[in-house]
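hey can u check if this looks right to u? its 339 residues, i copy pasted from the old doc so theres a chance i mangled smth
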Amino acid sequence: MLQLSDFDYHLPEQLIACQPLANRDDSRLLVVDETPQDRQFKHILDYLNAGDLLVLNNTRVVKARLFGHKPTGGKVEVMLERVINNHEIIAHVGTSKAIKIGMQIELPAGISMQVIERMENIFRLRIVQDIDIYAYLEQHGNLPLPPYMQRQAVLDDETRYQTVFAQHNGSVAAPTAGLHFTPELLAQIRAKGVQISYVTLHVGSGTFKPVSVENIAEHKMHSEVFEISADTIELIKQTKLAGGKVIAVGTTSLRTLESVAKRGLYPQRGETDIFITPGFKFELVDKLITNFHLPKSTLLMLVAAFSGKTQIDASYQHAIQNNYRFFSYGDAMLLTRQD
C-alpha cells in the first residue's frame, strides 16, 4: 500500500515560479510519453485533434483575504473559503488569541462580521450589514497568492493569476493549468476542429493543505462546489460516441468530470470531496493538462493515479533536471491516461 512518503520529492527552491512569464503561452510543456518531449505550451495544438473536447474550469478567483480588527483593537485576518450568500461566509480566521462564538470582526468600510459557528478549523461568519459580498471583496479584499510564493499580490497578479476565460466568482486559488491559455491560442484550437467547453469548480484553500497522515487512505479531502451544464454533458456524450478524446485542463476540471461520472451524466450542481489516488478507475477523462504539484499533495497523488506513479516520478525528475518552473506560475505537462 502506498504511503505519504511515496509522494515526496526534493525540489530546488529556485525552480518554484514566484512570478508569471511575460507571455502566458511561452511557458514550457512537458509531453509525457515513453520518451518525454520538451515543448512550449503554444505547441499544445500539435497534440489536439479535430473531434476532441477540451474542458476548462471557468471559475474566477476572488480577492478572498480581508484584514480587520476586534472592537478591542486586536488584529484579525479573514481568509474566505466559501460564500454562502450576501450575509454568510465560511472562512479561516486568524487572531493572536482563541476565537470565540459571537466574536465581532470590524472590517474596511464600516463592515462587521460575527463568528456564529465553528466548523473544525474554519468558521461560519454572519455579515451584519447588507452588502454585495463579491463587490465588497473586489474593492476591499486582497488577492490570496499561494503561500509558497512568499510575497503579497501586486497589480499584475490581478490579471495574471486569473484565466482569460474566468467567469464565475468563487475561487480562492486559480485553476492554474488554465493560466497558460491566451484568447489567440483558444481561437487556434477551435479552428482546428477541437470543441471547447466549461465546467465550474470553485477552488478552496484546502488545495494548499498538505496531507498530514502517513496512511493516505486516512486523509480527509476538503469539499468544493462544482457545476456542469447540459451543453457540456451533451458535448462529452457526442465526443465519446465519435471516438474523440476528452481532455481536462487542470485537476479541478478532471475532479469535476470524474465526480459527475460517478453520479451520472446529467447537468448538476453540487459538492465534491473526491480523492483520487493510484487504483482509481477513470471513466471520462482521456488526457490531462496540468502544472507540477507540491510534494506530498493530493494533486501529486491524482496525477500518479492518472498516468502511473513510475511515469510521474520519472517525469518530475526530468523536469527538475531540465529546470522546468514549478507550481502555480510554473510550466505544464500533458498526460495520457494509463489504462
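The chain has two domains: 4-61+156-336, 65-142.
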